[in-house]
Amino acid sequence: MSTPAIPPVLIGTGPLSPAEVVSVARHDARVALGDDARAAMTASRAVVEALADDPAPHYGVSTGFGALATTYIDRDRRAQLQLSLVRSHAAGSGPEVEREVVRALALLRLSTLATGRTGARPVVAETYAALLNAGITPVVREYGSLGCSGDLAPLAHVALAACGEGDVRVRDGELVPALHALADAGIEPLALREKEGLAVINGTDGMLGQLLLALGDLELLVATADVTAAMSVEATLGTDAAFAADLQRLRPHPGIAASADNMRRALAESAIVRSHRGPECTRVQDAYSLRCAPQVHGAVRDTMAHARAVAERELASAVDNPVVTPDGRVESNGSFHGAPVGYVLDFLAIAVADLASIAERRIDRMLDRARSNGLPPFLAHEIGVDSGLMIAQYTAAGIVSELKRLAMPASVDSIPSSAMQEDHVSMGWAAARKLRTAVDGLTRVIGIELLTASRALALRAPLRPADATAAAAGVVAAAAAPGPDRFLAPAVEQAVAAVRSGAVRDAVEAAIGRLA
After folding, report:
1. Which burial class, exposed, middle or buried, applies to 514 when counting CB atoms under 10 A from its CB (0-12, 13-18, 19+)?
2. Shortest CA distance to 417 belongs to which of 86, 81, 84, 65?
3. Which pathway does the UniProt entry assign to this protein (predicted)?
4. 3-state secondary structure (DSSP) of residue 72
5. Does pTM surpass 0.85?
6. Which of 120, 142, 239, 265 could bridge to 124 as Cys pair (CB 3.0-4.6 Å)?
7. Which domains occur in the chain, in start order?
């Protein structure tokens, strides 16, 4: 039997969902422009065309931009004006931005174009859809956006490629001139008209795309962190009593309840926990990194919920300046300012740093014979000869230190531009870029906790761990196996890959059902 075709993501029938953005950006789902979007764009374009004939100046239609907004441009120069805007704003510098980020950026600009509030013609949206479907990815550079007047430089690089200029990567990753890639894909280069230069660059799409990608990653990581925390509790002979549902209801944060539930279920029927649960146990309470894991992990979850709410509002927005209103006015506004997105990007970077920090403390606890309740120093095979996982903890600690620096908010900074016309900016793009780095660091710290806890649980034999924690440990059993020292970096990378791919979460869910 043939696999049924996956329907394309339809643009213009309502706000995109976060899952649809990730599907197009990361998994190359196709897109299609809906008839309602074409009708809305055609209607708003008629408003722009009428203003183009008006001898009075109208910003973005018959004037220059930014500090040059009072300069009137004759009609025979306006096509040049739009292309000049895109060329001059495609001023990025530095390393190339990741393919999935550029695809998210282009998709979200397409989504705003399809609202009919930008005054662009349907052909502009259709060209963006064709670029995405052909797997053509414009080269966007790391630096260039201040996060106000939108992600100008990144969006301009995408627009320039749509016009047949600049460089792009094709589906196999080869770097080619945009004009050649468009010709090979049968795409006609755009010839921008009045207002369209602004319409393709004036949005917060880069920072929003990276927020949505990060939220998708963090949904996996926080659930996996609940599992690795449970493994650490088990490995250090901690107690699950503090995770009881009735205790969590005394402080009814939804995220805390979800993480505590994951940890309870992950530790259910653990022979290791049961072995020291009797009245002979003198342990009254565990250290904070164990006992307070649901509180920290849960706070991360609740921060994510707030960020997700902001992202969903942004997905329902039409961000441009000026905008064509439903009643036919063309009005300047400040919706392009990235503050709403920048704040939550920074908030998430703080949460990510703290989640990694508490995980690193659990790693260190398992390696310290004074605090691990009977495990060998550094989980080494032959004390003195072998170093065990000593330096894996150094790696985690170095990452956590970097994450703390990345938690410094970008959105508290501002630097004026455009001859003081744009005198307060969001730095939301910078917040997005550092969050992306932070999410990668968190993935690595959770991977090291997985590796460490898996070896520690193996050293508790013949006592058996819980079904869920055994399933998680089984994913990295070979890499984590006790024994004489061996080249450690490959084992670390295997554990990181198991976290990043979702293999750990999948194994646990196969054992105990879906995690929160």
Report:
1. exposed
2. 65
3. Amino-acid degradation; L-histidine degradation into L-glutamate; N-formimidoyl-L-glutamate from L-histidine: step 1/3
4. strand
5. yes
6. 120
7. 9-203 (1.10.275.10), 210-318+332-512 (1.20.200.10)
User: Measured in whole angstroms, how far is the alpha carbon of residue 111 from the centre of its chain?
Assistant: 19
Q: Write the pLDDT tens digit of every residue in 383-393.
A: 999 999 999 99
Task: Please state whether beta strands 9-11 and 31-33 pair in parallel, antiparallel, or not at all (unpaired).
Answer: parallel
Is the CA virtual torsion 146, 149, 151, 154 positive or negative?
negative
Helical spans, DSSP H, in 329-464: 339-367, 390-406, 428-459
Angle at 511 between CA 507 and CA 515, to 5 degrees: 75
Q: Which of these, 133, 59, 154, 29, lies nearest to 433 by C-alpha position?
A: 154
**How many other C-beta atoms lie within 10 A of the C-beta of residue 108?**
28
Q: pLDDT for 472-483, tens place per residue?
A: 999 999 999 999
Nearest to 336 by CA among 412, 426, 411: 426
Active site residue 59: yes
Q: List own/partner pairs for 61-66 with CB under 8 A and 24 or more apart.
A: 61/119, 61/194, 61/195, 61/330, 62/194, 65/198, 66/149, 66/418, 66/419, 66/421, 66/422
Tell me the pLDDT tens digit for each residue of 10-43.
999 899 999 999 999 999 999 999 999 999 999 9
Q: What is the amino acid identity at position 19?
A: A
> H-helix or E-strand containing 470?
helix 467-475
Reduce the secondary structure of 236-286 to three states and give it as a string: CCCCCHHHCHHHHCCCCCHHHHHHHHHHHHHHCCCHHHHCCCCCCCCCCCC
List phi, psi (to 5°) of 164: 90, 20
Tell me the C-alpha distance between 92 and 1, whole Å: 48
**Residue positions counted in the chain:** 516
CA of 389: how far to CAs of 49, 149, 224, 454, 480, in Å?
A: 68, 49, 21, 12, 10
Calculate the CA 499 to chain-centre distance: 16
Residues sharing a CB contact under 8 Å with residue 102, sequence separation 6 or more, in sequence order? 137, 138, 140, 154, 158
HEC profile of 285-318: CCCHHHHCHHHHHHHHHHHHHHHHHHHHHHHCCC
Residue with tokens 């307070």, as numbered in its chain:
292
- For 474, phi then psi, to 5°, come to -65, -25
Tokens 């894991």 found at: 293
**From 59, 143, 288, 394, the catalytic residue:** 59
